[in-house]
Amino acid sequence: MQFNRRVLEEAEDATNPLLERVKFLAITGSNLDEYVEIRQAGLMQRIEDGYREPGYDGLRPAESLAILTAEIHKFVAAQYQCWNRQLAPELRKQGIRLLTWNELSESATEFARGYFQREVDPLLTPISIDPAHPFPRVLNKALCLALLLRAKRRSSGPQVLGVVTVPRALPRFVRLPSSQGHHDYLLLQDLIEQHLAGMYRGYQILASASFRVTRNSNLYFEEEEARSLLETIRVELHNRRKGDAVRLEIETGADQEIVERLRVNFELDEDQVLRCEGPVNLSRLMFLYGDIQRPDLKFQAFTPRPLVLSRGSTGIFEELRRRDILLHHPYDSYEPVVEFVQQGAKDPAVVTMKQTLYRTSHDSPMFQALTEAGASKEATVVVELMARFDEASNIRWARSMEDAGVQVFHGVVGLKTHCKLAMLVRHDEDGVIRRYCHLGTGNYNPDTARFYTDLSLLTSDPQIAERVHMVFNYLTAHAELDDYSPLLVAPLTMAESFLRLIRREQEHAQGGRPAHIVAKMNALLEPSIIQALYQASQAGVEIDLIVRGLCILRPGVKGLSERIRVRSIVGRFLEHSRIFHFANGGNDEIYLGSADWMPRNLLERCEVVFPVRDPAIIARIHNEILPAYLADTVKARIQQPDGNYIRSGKPIKDGPPFSAQDFLIHLAEGKTDPEFLPAAAAPTPKTVHKTAKAAD
């Protein structure tokens, strides 16, 4: 919730372009949806199942739920305050109007009525609730209209509830004809509301209001007892749409009789009802961002830096025999990763392909390439069926690839497969069979690679490639090794390896050698890691943590964590890369990977963290990427000892404000140089930057 607060701050920040602020607000809506239907619903499930043990914060589940519910109510109020007092008025000033029915001109009214008759009315099914028509099974997060009705023939008769589901197949915003340079819209539910009388002839409509119900979307089944994991998940996905209600969102002005009838029907407590002082479901505002072509109201577009091969290289495989390649997305193009897989599928010299898939895009070129590979070579894909909210699409991909001849596996029973690995086995021109690998911190999704920050390593390093091969054996045959080094593999070796690396920094500090840890991740919750960091801090290790979301470590506590600093960066791109830097007495070691420092990543998932060995790549991460994040004074929030966050806002050495993401964009565009980084931000003194430039 604190992370979502930081996203909301971006919607409130007048220095961001207006439509980007609308986008940030929409993101807070979708974030809150997932939080309620997974996290809050899971907490409620634990209470129902009888759990009483305190959590990390010392609170019992019921106590946590009470605090969380109050926080959600405050957050929703802040969301609508942002929309009503800031964004909607500013949009109007820019000629972008969300109109009510009474504000429509005569021509706009005529257009809206015609649109309703052609596109909307055929999709509607009005329902009135009575003994012959029970309350409909409202689907999860479906927008609906509730009506309070009374039969005209019985003016003093009982009030009846009516329900109309707003069609999901249509945009929530109806674009109206408007003059050049203007954009006028009407909410689809408002259009339907104006035509309710025609759907309920014979009834007097006493009141109406739009509402939405959120249901528990966790999947509950015993994986070990499932005869077919794919079929079991398919059935559970159908059940998810009908899970227990956990939240009712409804217009602020809704008639109390409607609110009460809905609350009782969905078996909700009063504090599970959220009043919306504006459009129900703010995540739908994302439509405006995509529909309105106003570049002046969005972040300036930029083109990711393409991969340039070394002089004389004839292709990616020859290049990888010469050197490793690091790509920092979205600043570096994701196209080389796509091409790596596509070339593997097309190249007759590639005899075997193996890849993991957690999430990918709807029309993924990765999926198409792997399907093509199934017809001509040995192709193995490990598909994670339980990637939350991507289960249905992953089931479709799995079945399609199996039909094409690809061997499809679903990883190790009881563990999610979250590692990002691709391996090609190629019979090279010199007669040698080599393995070429891609290891990444993010999903194989070209769409999200445009706005998630992630790192990709392409390599033919024999030792790394051989261990990647062994990881695939673990995923397909559960064949375990005692040691996967130089890789750290969860749940087998990763947790203990990280603890060993932290303890090594502690020993360096005690010996008077350089000792510094810089770790960037999405979340930090693992108690053993936190305890080790506290001990390292007390021994003299300087520790900088860049944690996007949840962090239960407390920095800057006297006698405990005085040398630990925690920052969260929320900006244009979603920070998703995981980087782990250890000064190691002056012999820097850097690891990248798919895992956060969380119990689920270290103990309940198949994860891989891999070393960076190429000196030029180490230099780039050490002197360019990490220092940029540590220098940020624009988008960074600094965690306080009490767990709250405040804006950084303090330029290093009284210099100008510095944004890491802006700097990295300008660097990719060739508009700046790494030397312009604030020197004080470097993890340790810059000693290898020139080596990196020479290697590039």
Protein model, in words:
- By secondary structure, this protein is α/β, with parallel strands linked by helices.
- The chain folds into 3 domains: 2-288, Polyphosphate kinase middle domain (polyphosphate kinase like, 2-Layer Sandwich), CATH 3.30.1840.10; 316-477, 2-Layer Sandwich (Endonuclease, Chain A), CATH 3.30.870; 488-695, Endonuclease, Chain A (2-Layer Sandwich), CATH 3.30.870.10.
- It is 36% helix and 21% strand.
- It contains 20 helices and 27 strands.
- Strands 14, 18, 19, 20, 21, 23, 24, 25, 26 and 27 form a 10-stranded mixed beta sheet that branches.
- Strand 12 (378-383), helix 13 and strand 13 form a beta-alpha-beta unit.
- Helix 11 runs parallel beside helix 12 (365-373) and helix 15 (494-510) packs parallel to helix 16 (527-539).
- The protein is globular.
- It starts with a helix and ends with a helix.
Summarize the structure in short.
The chain has 696 residues and is α/β, with parallel strands linked by helices. It contains 20 helices and 27 strands. It is 36% helix and 21% strand.
